[in-house]
Design a protein that fits this description.
single chain; two-stranded antiparallel ribbon
């Protein structure tokens, strides 16, 4: 599909960067419920700044060093291995070494911490790699899925994706039983061609991206397995994703729902991985995202709504995809 990117709305880079910096200094009163997951907020904000090409320009070296230091203070060691905790809210200060058994890492927060440190150009010299592999191993369940913490916590495709990305970053997959993990991904596939969060759940744009991206990350020596994704399955997934782009240009996350800015990334990125970007109405996509911008920074889920803290990062990820701004 040939797209013309004439007369597109401007990308409010300065406003978005200011929004990120405000959230890094302290969450607004409407978002204080996210304080227990501050690592995610930091990841979204500094990654958005980096994608906008403004991280070095809009922050100081002292700022970036302070953020690195704060993240490393969340690095924890427990009986199940090592990783990162969500925030200072979850910290346990106790002099006894035996108390560390209660200081368990969190898989999703470990994923966001490592990516944040990578954006901040950390050298990872403080990382306990062996402990991290042990932690991944302790989070995988019999069905191949992963829980956020050993023996408990949320379990769905999101946590599996986090484990895959961590393994890719470490270049060490010894903490994952890959065949069991792939089996779980395949069980989450639906009749529509998308993937749900669990087996037998409805197809969802976010978890479809996660499933496709996870399969893409599988090491080369396993990619020869024909059962990972057949040609027919690929075409079905592409068809379902393309059907989710509405006349407004935005993508919806589920069949029959309204378009939502963040699904523009999840569905668009999945199509990019599947080699089907040319099927996307890129002009319509850019126009929809332009209307979702809030003048003081951030993106709303749809035009005319309030900006959300979690919307900016996935939406800014589309800037290279749509080549505007």
């Amino acid at each position: 599909m040939e797209d013309r990117l004439d007369d597109l709305p401007a990308l409010f880079k300065d406003s978005h960067s200011a929004h990120c910096k405000r959230c890094l200094m302290g969450l607004p009163s409407s978002s204080t419920d996210l304080d227990a997951s501050r690592l995610v907020v930091i990841f979204y904000c500094i990654n958005a700044l980096d994608l906008l090409g403004l991280l070095s320009e809009k922050t100081t070296k002292a700022d970036r060093e302070a953020w690195r230091d704060w993240i490393w203070r969340r690095h924890t060691f427990g009986v199940y291995g090592s990783g990162f905790k969500p925030s200072s809210y979850m910290s346990i200060e106790h002099p006894s070494e035996s108390y560390k058994g209660y200081d368990t890492p969190h898989l999703i927060m470990t994923y966001t911490a490592l990516l944040s440190l990578a954006v901040l150009r950390d050298d990872f010299s403080k990382l306990d790699r062996k402990g991290l592999i042990n932690f991944l191993r302790s989070c995988q369940k019999e069905d191949g899925s992963f829980s956020t913490i050993p023996n408990g916590g949320e379990t769905d495709l999101r946590t599996l994706y986090c484990a895959f990305v961590i393994s890719m970053m470490l270049d060490d997959w010894s903490g994952i039983d890959i065949p069991r993990a792939i089996s779980f991904i395949k069980k989450c596939r639906t009749h529509e061609g998308g993937y749900g969060q669990f087996p037998l759940c409805e197809a969802h744009g976010g978890t479809t991206y996660i499933a496709v991206a996870s399969l893409y990350l599988v090491p080369n020596e396993l990619k020869a397995i024909p059962e990972i994704m057949s040609a027919l399955e690929r075409e079905e997934t592409i068809r379902w994703l393309i059907q989710n782009q509405e006349p407004s240009g935005g993508f919806r996350g589920r069949t029959g729902k309204e378009a939502d800015a963040c699904y523009c990334f999840w569905c668009g990125a999945a199509l990019q991985i599947l080699g089907a970007k040319d099927l996307v109405n890129v002009t319509g996509l850019a126009r929809f995202l332009g209307r979702c911008q809030f003048k003081y920074g951030g993106f709303s889920k749809a035009p005319g709504e309030h900006a959300g803290t979690y919307k900016l990062h996935p939406t800014v990820l589309l800037v290279p995809f749509i080549s505007y701004g």
